[in-house]
Amino acid sequence: MAEAKTSTETPLQKQYNAIKAKYPGALLLFRVGDFYETFGQDAIAASKVLEIVLTKRGNGSASETALAGFPHHSLDTYLPRLVRAGHRVAICDQLEDPRFVKGIVKRGVTELVTPGLSFNDNVLERKQNNFLASVFSGKDATGVSFLDVSTGEFYVAQGNETYILKLIQGFAPSEIIFSKQSRQKFESLFREEYSIYALDEWVYGYDYAYEKLTSQFKTASLKGFGVEDYSEAIIAAGAVIHYLEETEHKDTSHITSISRIDEDRYVWLDKFTIRNLEIIHTQHEGGVPLIQILDQTLTPMGSRQLRKWMILPLKEKVAIDERLSIVETFFGDVALTEKIADPLKQISDLERLISKVAVNRINPREMVQLKKSLKCIEPIKQLLSAHSASSLLKMGEQLHLCDTLVDKIERELREDVSIVSNQGGLIKEGIDTELDELQKIAFSGKDYLLQIQKREVERTGINSLKISFNKVFGYYLEVSNANKDKVPADWIRKQTLVNAERYITEELKVYEEKILHAEEKLTAIEQRIYNALILEAAKFIPHIQQNARVLAQLDCLLSFSVVAHANKYTRPVINESLIIDIKSGRHPVIEKQLPAGESYVPNDVYLDSEKQQVMIITGPNMAGKSALLRQTALIVLLAQMGSFVPAESASIGLVDKVFTRVGASDNLSKGESTFMVEMTETASILNNLSNRSLILMDEIGRGTSTYDGVSIAWAIVEYLHNHKDFKPKTLFATHYHELNQLEEDLTRVKNFNVSVKEVGDKIIFMRKLKEGGSEHSFGIHVAQLAGMPNRVVFRANEILHFLEKDKHKNEQRQKIKEVPKATPQMTLFETDPRWKEIEEKLTKVDINTISPVEALLKLNELITAMKK
User: Distance (Å, rounded) from C-alpha 172 to C-alpha 170?
Assistant: First the structure.
C-alpha cells in the first residue's frame, strides 16, 4: 500500500492514502479485519519498535510496499511501546460492521495518541501525571499551560522565561507543543529531553484561544478562574484545547476548570535546585530521591498530589500550619490513621476512572471499580465528620457519597463482568424483561444442544461425538474417521479433516439461528443499558473529581504522618521571622541508607539576618559538608510542604526562594565546561536574590585555578554580605581556608568546620559541625582512602610538607616554582637501605590469598619498619 499514489491503486489503497494524508506526522494503525496494519515507512518504524515481522506486499511490482501488523486485540500491548518511543499514533478503525456492508468498509481515525495525550493504562504511569505542556512567548512574558487529559487537571502560569523553564522541569511534561514561529528557539531548549510538536502560528492567537477556553468551560469570561489578565498563559492554554480537537479528543467534559500557578504563593525552586537536591529524581544511577522516602501514599491520586506539593512548597504561614495541624492530629492518633487508611487503600484511581467516563472509554470492570471506590468514601466521611478538628470536618463536608450512582451500578451491573461490554453477562436479572427472556433462550438453547448431543450419541453409538461451533459453519457435529460408517443418512457432510468429518442437521441449524439471534439482540440491549449507565455516571463528574482532590490531600497528609512516625520527625514551627534555627537536623535520605547499626550524626544550623547571615564551612571531602548543606534546604522545604522534619526541633522563618550551587557537571553537548556551568548557576542566584532567600553554595570556584577560585569565592561572600537591599541566609562550603579571614572583616560571617579526628597517620570523620575554621583539608588522606597509588600519595606528601614550611600566602607562588623535582622510584630503593628490607618483605606477600585484615596488618608492619 504505497504512500505515494500509483495508477493501480485499489479502493482500499485509495482509502488508506486519503486518511494518511490527513495525519502526515503520525504513524497510522489501519484496521483491516482482525488486524491493525502499517504500511511503507510506518511499517519499517513499527517493526523496529515492536520487534514484529516486516513483510512486503506486491513484491517486485510498481506498487511494492513494506507491511507490518498485529492482531487488533493486542493494541494495548503494542500501542504503549510506540508512544514511549516518541511516535504520534493515529488509530484508524472500521466505522461499520463488515457483515452488513457491500464493498469497502468506512474507516476513520478515532484517536490520535501522542506522548502527552493518552487514556491507555499501559501508557500512563500510575503515580505520575501525564502532562501535555503548551508554551507561548510574548513580548513581555512567557505563558505555559499543563493539561493531564487522563485526570482533567489543567494549569496555567505566566512569567519570565526562567520561571517557565523551572515549572516545565518540575511538571516534567510528556510532550510540549508550541508555535511554528518559535520552532528554532524551543527546539533548542526542549528537543533533547521532551517530545515536541509545532502547531500553525494562527492557533497561538489571543482571541482564538480565549474563545476556545470560554467555550470549553461554558462561561462568558475567564475572570472566575483568576486568569483573565494572563494573556500569554491564555494563548498557551487555548492551543491545548485546539490540539485536543486536532487529535480527535472531542469528549472533554471532564476538563471543567483551569487553575493558575501563582508565583507569589509558592517557594521559588530554580531548575538547578530541583536537580541538585534530588527532590523528585536522582542524578546518579541507584540513588534515592526525597520523594521515595516521603511517598507512603495509598492511592494513585495521593502520589500524584505529593509530587506537585514537593515541587511547589508553600510560603503562606496559614496554609502551611493547616497542613501541619492535620499531620499532627494523625501523628497523635494512630488508631484514627489506621481507620482512615483501611478504606483509603481500597480506592482505585478515581480521577482517571471518571475521566474515562467522560470520554466513554470506561469498561464494565472499571465501572465496578468506580462503584467499590465510591462505597469506600462513606466510612472516611463519617470519621472526618465526627472529628473535632475543623480542618478535618471541612474535608469531610467536601466528600460526596454519590449514593444514587452507587445504587444504580449496584442494581444493574454484575460483579463478575468482563473487560469488554459486548460479550454478554453484563446486566443483572430483573432490569429489562426482554433481556431476561433472551438470556433464557440463549442459555437454555445451549443446554438443548447438549441434549441433542446426548441423544445422537445414544442413537448412533458414537461415544466420541461432539457438537462444536466456528464462524464458518456455525454449530456442527464432529465424528472421528473410525466412526464414519455409523453416521446416519439424514446428516449433511460439510467438511473433511485429516482425522475426522464434520456434519450438520436441520434441527441443529434451527436452534443455531435461534441462539445466535438471541445472543446478538441480547448484546445490543446490554450495550444500550450500559451506555445509559455511563451517561448517568457522567452527571457525577464534578462530584467525583472533588472527591479525588480531597482524598489525594488526605492521603498526602496521612503519608507525612506515617513517615514522621517511622523516622522520628518533629513538627516544625513556622513563623514570619528571618531566622532559621534547626537543632540536631538530619538528612532525610542519607539517614535511611546507612548500614545497619550506624546512626546519622545530627547537626545544628542557625542563620539570621543580624548576627549570622553567612556560615563558611570548611573541612575535608567526605566529612559531610555537602550533606549538611542539602539537609538544611530539605528540612526547610519539608516544613513548607506541611511535613514534619528530621530534627530535634526546627524554627523556620518563611523562606521564599531556595538556591543551590552544588556538585560539578559538564554540559559538553552545549560546549560548556564545569566552570562555565558553575558560573552560570551562580549568576542565576546572585541575580534573583531576596531577603528571605536560602542559598547553598558548595565549592564555588574549584573549576578554575586556585587563585581565580579563591578570588571569585571571596567576592561572592562579600556580595551576599554587603548587598544593599537583601541579607540572604547562606551556607558556603569551601576548601579555600583563606575565606576564614572574612569572619574578621564581615560582621555577619561566621566560620565553622566539619570536624575530623587524627589518629596517627589516619583520619576519622566525626561529621560534627564545630565553630571555627579548619586549616587542613586532608586531601591527601582522602586520596589515599580512594585507592590512589602509593607512589602518588608519597609524592603529594613530600610537596605538601615543603609548601607548609612557609605559611606566607603571598610567597607561595615562588615556593611552588622551587618544589624539588620528583626523583625516579629506583633511586629511593638504591639510596635508602630501609627500602631494601621493605622490598624483600613485599615480594614474600601472596596478594591472591591475603585477607583484607592481614593486608592492613602487613601495611602497619611496613610503616613501622619505615619509621625506624
Answer: 5
Q: At residue 664, what are phi and psi to the nearest 5 degrees? A: -125, 135
Q: N- to C-terminal Cα distance for the chain? A: 89
Residues 255, 164 within the same domain: yes
Query: Using DSSP, how many helices (H) and how many strands (E) does the chain show?
Result: 30, 27
Residue 388 and residue 315 share a domain: yes
Cell numbers describing residue 694: 536560602
- Residue 516 sits at the vertex; the CA angle it makes with 511 and 521, to the nearest 5 degrees, is 130
Q: Is residue 26 part of a domain?
A: yes
Residues in the chain: 868
Cβ(477)–Cβ(494) below 8 Å? no
The total number of structural domains in the chain stands at 7
What CATH number does residue 25 fall under? 3.40.1170.10
Are 754 and 729 part of one and the same domain? yes
DSSP state of 754: E
Give per-residue burial for 28-66: e unless 16+ CB within 10 Å, then b. bbbbbeeebbbbbebbebbbebbebeeeebeeeeebebb
Output the DSSP codes for 592-629: HHSPTT-----EEEEE-SSS-SEEEEE--TTSSHHHHH
Is residue 696 located within the same domain as residue 740? Answer: yes
Cell numbers found for residue 618: 570548611
338 shares its domain with 358: yes
Judge whether 731 lies within some domain. yes
Residue 773 has φ and ψ, to the nearest 5°, of: -85, 165
Nearest partner of 633 among 584, 688, 587, judged by Cα: 587
Please give the radius of gyration of the chain, using alpha carbons only, rounded to the nearest integer. 36
pTM, entire model: 0.82
Within a domain: 415? no
Q: Of 730, 767, 556, nearest to 644 (Cα)?
A: 556
- 3-state SS class at 735: coil
Question: In this structure, are 751 and 806 located in the same domain?
Answer: no
Residues 243 and 333 grouped into a single domain: no
Q: How confident is the model at residue 206 (pLDDT cuts 50, 70, 90)?
A: very high
65-71 and 474-480 beta bridge pairing? unpaired
Host domain of residue 443: 433-534
C-alpha cell at 97: 460492521
Which pLDDT band, with edges at 50, 70 and 90, does 512 fall under?
confident
Q: Which three cell numbers stand for residue 810?
A: 603571598
pLDDT digits (tens, 9 = 90+) for 580-614: 999 999 999 999 998 888 888 999 999 999 999 99
* Spatial distance between the Cα atoms of 248 and 267, rounded to a whole number of angstroms: 38
Domain CATH code at residue 366 = 1.10.1420.10
Q: Which helix (H) or strand (E) holds 657?
A: strand 657-661
pLDDT digits (tens, 9 = 90+) for 59-76: 656 567 889 999 988 898
Beta-bridge partner residues of 729: 694
DSSP 482: G
DSSP string, 406-456: HHHHHHHB-TT--SSSSSS--B-TTS-HHHHHHHHHHHHHHHHHHHHHHHH
Q: Are 103 and 159 found together in one domain? A: no
486-495 burial: b if 16+ Cβ within 10 Å, else e: ebeeebeeee
Q: Does 274 fall in a domain?
A: no
Tell me how far CA of residue 826 lies from CA of 103, 237, 823, in angstroms: 93, 74, 8
